[in-house]
Amino acid sequence: MDTVDLANLRREYSDRGIGVTDFTADPIEQFARWFAELDKAVPKSDTPWFEPNATVLSTADAEGRPSARTVLLKRYGPDGFTVFTNYRSRKARDVAANPAACLLFPWAPLARQVIVTGAMTRSPEAESDAYFATRPRGAQLGAWASEQSSAIPDRDWLDARYERFDREFPDAVPRPPHWGGLLLVPETVEFWQGRASRLHDRLRYVREGGKWRIERLSP
């Protein structure tokens, strides 16, 4: 079996740092700044595999057993960060039992990451309806066909369900009642910048009442 020497895999980061005085008073505004820098710095033609809004959502069930998966962020604003999913999926069941959640944005091209923690809840139905209407027809049908996180007999079973709903909805596809948004309301937002010698910069916003406080963490 071919093996890779993981202990000797190293990449030195640049010495470009971040400071409190460089940041805005609001973490959502700072997130927007970093997202814009990432989108500008990573040419889509050179890295077609890279999706800047990809994020790792971590949840835990009622017993505290964790699970994580990569999802796509579809909205962010003063109220928080929104992803969309099947409400019968494992992540949605976790959120119903234990609202504590975390989003990790691994922005490796800029040696950055953002970590958001807080409580997660379902989005308003009107918001879910509005976003679902913007999805391609194939994705809309997929939301009906998929019994997300459930064991299925085989791929043919999934394809047959897709074809069934394609016939059932020849025109507009309605949003399934079991599909919609999950909103993470942030309590902390950490911005991480890789630095030389593994002395990374970590600045974390902490919500205190209706205001945000910024603190520096040791790498």
Compact summary:
The protein is of the alpha+beta class.
Written overview of the protein:
This protein has helices spanning 27-41, 90-97, 125-134, 137-145, 155-168; strands at 54-60, 66-72, 75-77, 80-86, 100-107, 112-122, 179-193, 201-208, 211-217. With 219 residues, the protein is of the alpha+beta class. The chain has a domain at 15-125 and 183-217: Roll (Pnp Oxidase, Chain A). Strands 1, 2, 3, 4, 5, 6, 7, 8 and 9 form a nine-stranded antiparallel sheet that branches. The chain is globular. The two termini are 35 Å apart.
Helix-strand layout with pairing:
Layout: H1 27-41, E1 54-60, E2 66-72, E3 75-77, E4 80-86, H2 90-97, E5 100-107, E6 112-122, H3 125-134, H4 137-145, H5 155-168, E7 179-193, E8 201-208, E9 211-217
Antiparallel strand pairs: 1-2, 1-5, 3-4, 4-7, 5-6, 6-7, 7-8, 8-9
Helix pairs in contact: 4-5
Assign a percent range to the helix content.
Answer: 25-40%
- Name the CATH superfamily assignment of one domain: Electron Transport, Fmn-binding Protein, Chain A
How much is the average pLDDT? 93
Number of strands: 9
**Low-pLDDT segments, ≥5 res:** none
Strand residue content = 25-35%
Give me the CATH architecture of one domain, please. Roll
Number of helices: 5
Write down the CATH topology of one domain: Pnp Oxidase, Chain A
- How far from one another are the termini? 35 Å
Assign the structural class, choosing from mainly alpha, mainly beta, alpha/beta, alpha+beta, or little secondary structure: alpha+beta
Top CATH class of one domain: Mainly Beta
Sketch the major β-sheet.
9 strands, antiparallel
The radius of gyration computed from the alpha-carbon positions, rounded to a whole number of angstroms, is: 20 Å
Q: How do the SSEs run, as a string of H and E?
A: HEEEEHEEHHHEEE
- Silhouette: globular
